[in-house]
Specification:
Layout (H helix, E strand, L loop, with lengths): L2 E3 L4 E7 L6 E2 L4 E6 L4 E5 L4 E6 L6 E3 L3 E6 L5 H10 L34 H10 L17 H7 L44 H13 L4 E9 L1 H10 L6 H15 L21 E3 L1 E3 L2 E3 L2 E2 L7 H16 L13 E5 L18 E5 L3 E6 L5 E14 L5 H16 L7
Helix pairs in contact: 2-3, 6-8
Length: about 425
């Protein structure tokens, strides 16, 4: 009678697709869980009966905690309900999700009489499927019962994960908790309202704190945009956004400067990424998310723009898959559309650099002969991990990026 579990830092149950007493089949969606950035359908790994729901809709559960109990037979349902009543989201989670086996029922069923084969229904189904004779197996379950794992072992199949729900809501295990610090006391302001973080806001908070451990430096660079603005006017009617143009230009420059597309994940080595995946910051009502344009250097401008529109729509609907928001190798944050002329961006964990782009504005500039002219100009500020990216690296990258922006014909090729 395994417990349904989910490996995330903390998850909120959006809705249960199945109800208590429903028969479940392997691969079926059971529950919708709100992860850090999206709502995810979570599937069961086994056949069985949803005997009890431990965490109700709207409630949250910590990592490793059971959210529901799956029974293999109807006889185990009452015991499952008893287990569910003893569990709560606030109870300490186990070190890892572990399948729970029921104590032997009393009296022993007729199937358990001497000379009879004792096996779970799903074990019998697996045995028939893989042509395994359960009569020759030594069961490891309660009272010598043959379990699905026994059948899989006999058939030479790698054992399935013990948890019964796919851990599709978190790309990796959470980082070890930082040493506890004394809570800081702040004075209460009369009439103030305390609003708890949403799941997304909590994820943003964790990432920002993690970023503080990385030594960073920042470089600003002014770039004339008259040519880029002219190109934008031509392609805007075809659905191309300024963000797509900037993402394409950034990707093309990164191909020539792979160190700026690298990262340091262990404090001891470079990770050179074979793909140029541009993550682009998108503001949400309750936080921030960075959909990723994968292989942005290999997509033509119009296909990239179409892909970007699809990603934004999925982000607004909270339907992004984990690889669509956690696979970025370089991040672009564009606040120029809001009229912001300059700002610094915080380095995302696991990446080497992030580029903050300000608005393009008429600016008085001097040419080589000292004559003043007015040109449209934007300021980009790049924040980089100084463990793997040095000043000369970033300066060379920005010069390449500037050349692409000032001669943007290559963006449409």
């Amino acid at each position: 009678m395994p417990a349904l579990s989910s490996t995330m830092t903390e998850g909120k149950i959006v809705s249960w697709v199945k109800s208590e007493g429903d028969l479940l089949f392997k691969g079926e969606s059971v529950v919708v869980v709100e992860s850090d950035k999206a709502d995810m359908d979570v599937e069961t790994f086994y056949d069985g009966i949803l005997a009890a729901i431990v965490v109700s809709e709207g409630d949250t559960a910590p990592v490793g905690a059971a959210i529901g109990i799956l029974a293999e037979t109807e006889a185990e349902i009452e015991e499952a309900k008893a287990k569910a009543a003893a569990k709560s989201p606030s109870s300490p989670p186990p070190a890892a999700p572990v399948a729970e086996s029921p104590a032997p029922a009393a009296p022993i069923s007729a199937d358990s009489a001497p000379g009879k084969v004792v096996a779970t229904p799903f074990a019998k189904k697996l045995a028939k499927q893989h042509k395994v004779d359960v009569r020759k197996l030594a069961g490891t379950g309660p009272n010598g019962r043959v379990t699905p794992e026994d059948v899989e072992k006999a058939a030479g199949i790698a054992p399935a994960p013990k948890a019964n729900v796919a851990a599709a809501v978190a790309p990796s295990a959470p980082a070890p908790a930082a040493p506890a610090k004394a809570a800081v006391s702040y004075p209460e302001i009369p009439g103030a309202k305390i609003v708890p973080f949403t799941t997304m806001q909590a994820a943003v908070s964790r990432n920002m704190i993690e970023s503080l451990s990385v030594p960073t430096f920042r470089v600003g660079y002014p770039i004339a945009t008259d040519a880029l603005d002219a190109l934008y006017k031509k392609v805007k009617a075809k659905g191309v956004t300024m963000t797509a143009l900037l993402a394409k230009a950034a990707a093309m420059a990164l191909v020539q400067h792979p160190v700026v597309n690298s990262s340091c994940k262990d404090g001891k080595s470079f990770t050179y990424n074979s793909s140029v995946n541009i993550a682009v910051a998108v503001a949400m009502d309750d936080g921030l998310i960075t959909p990723v344009l994968q292989d942005a250097d290999k997509l033509d401008l119009y296909l990239l723009s179409k892909k970007w529109k699809e990603l934004v729509e999925k982000a607004r609907a909270k339907q992004l898959q984990p690889q669509e928001y956690n696979s970025g190798t370089f991040t672009l944050s564009n606040l120029g559309m809001f009229g912001v002329d300059r700002f610094d961006a915080i380095l995302p964990p696991g990446q080497g650099a992030i580029m903050a782009v300000g608005a393009s504005k008429p600016t008085v500039v001097a040419d080589k002969e000292g004559f003043f002219t007015v040109k449209n100009q934007m300021l980009v500020n790049v924040t980089a991990d100084h463990r793997v990216i040095y000043g000369a690296d970033l300066a060379a990258y920005l010069q390449t990026f500037m050349k692409i922006i000032q001669n943007p014909e290559s963006l449409t090729m």
